[in-house]
Design a protein that fits this description.
Layout lengths: L7 H5 L4 H7 L6 E3 L13 H10 L8 E4 L2 E2 L6 E6 L2 E7 L1 H9 L3 E4 L7 H14 L2 E9 L14 E9 L1 E6 L24 E5 L4 E4 L4 E5 L5 E9 L3 H10 L22 H18 L2 H14 L21 E2 L6 E6 L2 E6 L2 E6 H13 L1 E2 L10 H13 L4 E2 L6
Length: 402
Amino acid sequence: MPTETFDFARLLGPLEADQFFAEFWERKYLHLKRSQPHYYQSLICAADLEKIISESDARYPAIRLAKGGGYFAPETYTRDVKHGDESFTGIPDVKRISDEYRRGATVALPAIQRTWKPLGLLCDALQRELDHAVHANIYITPGNASGFTPHYDTHEVFVLQVAGSKRWSIYEPSVPLPHRGQPFTPQAYSGQPPIADVDLEPGDLLYLPRGFLHSTTTAYGFSAHVTIGVTVYTWADVIRQYLQAGNDVLDLRRSLPPGFASKPELKTQVVDGLAAGLERLRTEVDSHALIDVFTERVLASRVPRPEPFRVDVKVVEATTMLSMPAATTYRYSDAAESGLLEFNGVRYQLPAPVASTFRAMVALQRFRPAELPAHLSPEGNLGFSRQLVDVGFLSLDLSRDY
């Protein structure tokens, strides 16, 4: 498996990132024609894809079939394998997949960044650069076939043509920059002609802002491309948190006037009350603190690449040296008689003694469970430490300098 690093600058090259954000990001599509068929060789190639489908243990939904704008039911191309009293479900039937592929179906490998390291590292690099969530899908379509019918995505799209060629028909957006709560519906496409037809060749890049409708077809040869999807955080997301902060303002917790929905004469009072409430929210909510909380939650929601499995480990004991993760990978806040830890997109409510122990861990950074203060019993300190190791928060410190 190739391991060469591929970052955001190389993804856009030779275009500079500053020019991309100034001219194209959320504005218009971009087609980079490189005439370098092996540009993405370090990420993945056609032979890799054949091996993933034929030999790997990628089970549904990590492998899917699509045709005519919809996905096949998984039971049409997967099977269950009995092993003693256990069953392995969703095992791909490679012959059925091959048969449907020859009939024009597209093979999709969703969230391939989870299992294919080079694409995982690329997604990690883009996420660090953009601070938005990034994923990768792969689509393989036979020659003389159509891909998906006209539709738009609610995330930014970078298409990396890995092998073969594919024609992309691009249409004006029917919903400019749709939020992820505004998914495509067939009514959004009214048969309008495309604004461009783009032929992607190996090594080419196509960027589509969310909302741009598109459809695809192949000619005589097959096509394999990687779609890098960027699910963005929007100002609407920030404002949603801003409004949620209104729960802490007493006047905004007061009820609307009785009869507000059935008495038209109260409408002016309600409108004026709304304006006053928004002004009170603006003056009483600390915007700097709110943005700090928002960004901390974004960072804490990132799921880091798991450490490789090791056979040479020991069960965590009271004398095992443990290490805290980087402060940017989690968020901790104190509440009344408790604490809240946010890590890997999960929130953990910590009772008061546990929260005190956690704060001690933060202060120490490297520690043995036996060295923690006695907010909990020795067994409690050890159990809590083991729990944090189990969820991937604490790591075993394998350095030899202690």
